[in-house]
Amino acid sequence: MNPRLLPAAAALLALAACGTTDTSGAATSTTGTAGASAAAGTGQCGKLTTSDAWVKAADTGMTGGFASLRNTGSTAAHIVSATSPASAMMELHETVASPQGGTMMRAKEGGFTIEPGGTLSLAPGANHIMFMKLIGPLPSGTTTSWTLACQDGSTLAVTAQVRTFTGAKETYVPGATTGTGSMPGMTGGMTSSRAMTSHG
Amino acid sequence: MADQGAAATGDTSVAAAPRRRSVLGIGAGVVGAAGAGLLGYGAGLSRPRQPEPSGAAGPAGAPTPGWVEAVEPFFGSHQSGIVTAPQAHASFVALDLLAGAGREGLRRLLRMWTDDASRLQRGIPTIADPQPDLAGPPSRLTVTVGLGRGALVAAGLEGQAPEWLRDLPAFTVDRLERQWSSGDVVAQVCCDDPTVLAHAVRALLIDATGIAELRWHQQGFRRPASSPATMRNLFGQVDGTVQPEPSRFDELVWCGSEVPAWLRGGSSLVLRRIHMNLETWDELDPAAKEAVIGRRLTSGAPLTGQLETDQPDLEARTSGGLHVIPDFAHARQAAPAAGAPHERILRRPYSYDEGLPGNGGLGGSGIAVPRPTLPPAAAAAAEARRTGDAGLLFAAYQRDPVRQFVPIQRRLDTLDLLNVWTTPIGSAVFAMLPGVAEGSYLGAALLDG
After folding, report:
1. Which of residues 114-133 of B touch A (CB under 8 A)?
2. Distance between CA B29 and CA A159 in Å, rounded?
3. Which of A164, A168, B118, B362 is a good FRET partner for B412, with 20 to 30 A between their CA atoms?
4. A5, A192, B5, B192, B269 from B142: Cα distances, Å
5. HSE (CB half, 13 Å, CA atoms) of B76?
6. C-alpha span between B378 and A29 (Å, rounded)
7. Residue B428 contacts by C-beta under 8 Å, 6 or more apart in sequence?
8. C-alpha distances out from residue B186 to B99, B110, B141, B173, Å
9. Which residues pair with B390 in a beta bridge?
10. Is the sign of the CA dihedral B50, B54, B59, B61 positive or negative?
11. What φ, ψ does residue A146 adopt, rounded to 5°?
12. Measured between beta carbons, which residues in chain A are less than 8 angstroms from residue B442?
């Protein structure tokens, strides 16, 4: 590579993910089919269908959850929180442009809204579910789950595949919103600088 | 292109007869022909250059518009990629499980491979695909997964291994190198588009992160399936004409009640990497080349016949009393032994060419190419490094390699003049898993049993 391009390349890589360290070989046995679900419930969350749900494999600390959510109902669905047996703390995150260039992620104020017939893509480098404090390792090739809660109290359980993923390393900026606030006890491989992303 | 349309219909009956006459049908019924060999020979230009009866739409050799969309089914009682019409490109990837991966690691890997393959064969990106735009069109992608004995040992399931799941016995012609041999887990990935193929292989390797490490990766190519003619290998020989008849697949290709339940409906893969000395082969005159094989180079017809589909007459003699098909001919030695009609294998070979070294192959540097000797020179590997490594990835599928493959190879090992120009440098045996139903994963019957 042209040496003059190296700083730019480093800056791109510094758009670090809401992710954590790579998976280990640690093994836990889980079963079940991850991926798609049919809307069968009531309330806002009950009208959501899920597909391609997955979580980035991680040993400790933080990681991200992703899926495609479609609102099959006739009213907007307001997702306000998430829980998971795999993490002591969960947040709904968005990824936004950093004033310094690049992107950063932060808690999404007010959660996610999916209009009737609309689809929300939770993806690396975009909106996602943040596992803030893993309780144990999430090895690739296993499954885990999370539950979304909507404003009206309805919920949606999501089963997700755990997969190795090395992309979209956005910088996380705790306290950048009025959302959950600071992150006591945060550990793990995620980029945790309180500074905004820079292009180094 | 022949029958791509049929493939694209999403026919899920993998067990059905192959849909292309060019793959397996030519020579059907020619029992006793050179149907199973180290290098196979047969039909070629004598076959009518016209659309296949099974439904080619375009002129011979011209891909039908939309061919890249063709899909091979993933779910079914057998894995695709075995009796599937061979795609133009192949990658064979073997992994070794990392220490400690064990049964759970193998389960994790096979779960991911199942999900990824089921998507990629439809041209859909994997679930965490870093390059989703490379996932299609699928171009008949197939991912076919198997296990070596090492995988069962690592999983604590060696008692579930069929007896034949081990390295082949040593042959005198072998000059095997570890870098091309054995392995715990294998994926045969085939596709008509090499870019889509490369993407699929990368997806499988990402899945292996933290579970297994790459042991070897072998890439091959062959005449596109759209071609009306049977593949030729790099010696110019028509390769892969006579195959087991589809009506005999249950007898000759698919494992049955003789193996543990988890493998029934699977098969075995013998993959032999056969270095071919193109330089010394070039030095033979055409008549000598045909005598070595026992078949005509241009037509693929046996020396006793006119058409590639003609059955070789192994008893025919010249006026001088010699066999027309010489005693040392590959076609004679590769034919099933008398009274052993089960000595048949399904050949799915691919040529390989690793290119020439920059310091001058082809004699340009003045490097002397060793003269052939019998048995093959032990310096084959070193020679390959000087003259380039090219040859054949001889992939053979059969129900039981010890019963079907080994007897053939023993004959070839003993008296096949072709051995002068060919050297096996890699060898591996895998138990290819049976097919999988939607919602399950490859190997579930073994690992969850």
Report:
1. 115, 127-128, 130
2. 52
3. B362
4. 39, 42, 16, 10, 15
5. 20
6. 49
7. B94, B148, B167, B180, B181, B182, B183, B186, B269, B270, B271
8. 17, 11, 16, 25
9. B353
10. negative
11. -145, 165
12. none
Residue A42 near chain B (CB below 8 Å): no
pTM: 0.80
Token pair of A14 as six digits: 């510094």
The Cα B60–Cα B58 span in angstroms is 6
Distance CA B230, CA B235 (A): 14
Number of alpha carbons in the 13 Å side-chain half-sphere of residue B42: 31
Report the C-alpha gap between B420 and B275 in whole angstroms: 11
Structure tokens at A92: 């709904």
Cross-chain Cβ contact B112/A140 below 8 Å:
yes
Q: Which two tokens stand for residue B289?
A: 């080349």
DSSP state of B24: I
Catalytic residues of B: 239
Amino acid at B77: S
Cβ-contact B243, B398 below 8 angstroms: no
Q: What span, in angstroms and rounded, lies between the C-alpha atoms of B304 and B269?
A: 32
Longest distance between any two alpha carbons in chain A, whole Å: 58
Burial B194-219 (b: 16+ CB within 10 A, else e): bebbbbbbebbbbbbbbbbeebbebb
Tell me the ipTM for this assembly.
0.77
Interface test with B, best of A164, A165, A166, A169 (most B CBs within 10 A): A164
Please tell me the distance from the alpha carbon of residue B430 to that of residue B148, in angstroms, as a whole number.
5
CA dist A165 and A57 (Å) reads 7
Q: Which residue has the tokens 């689809």?
A: A119
Tens of pLDDT along chain B (449 residues) come to: 333 333 333 333 333 333 333 333 333 333 333 333 333 222 222 333 333 333 333 344 555 556 778 999 999 999 999 999 999 999 999 999 999 999 999 999 999 999 999 999 999 999 999 999 999 899 999 999 999 999 999 999 999 999 999 999 999 999 999 999 999 999 999 999 999 999 999 999 999 999 999 999 999 999 987 787 888 999 999 888 788 999 999 999 999 999 999 999 999 999 999 999 988 899 899 999 999 999 999 999 999 999 998 999 999 999 999 999 998 899 888 888 888 999 999 999 999 998 876 654 454 444 444 444 444 545 555 555 556 789 999 999 999 999 999 999 999 988 888 888 999 999 999 999 999 999 999 999 999 97
Cα separation of B37 and B260, whole Å?
28
CB-CB neighbors (< 8 A) of B127 in chain A:
35, 52, 54, 161, 163
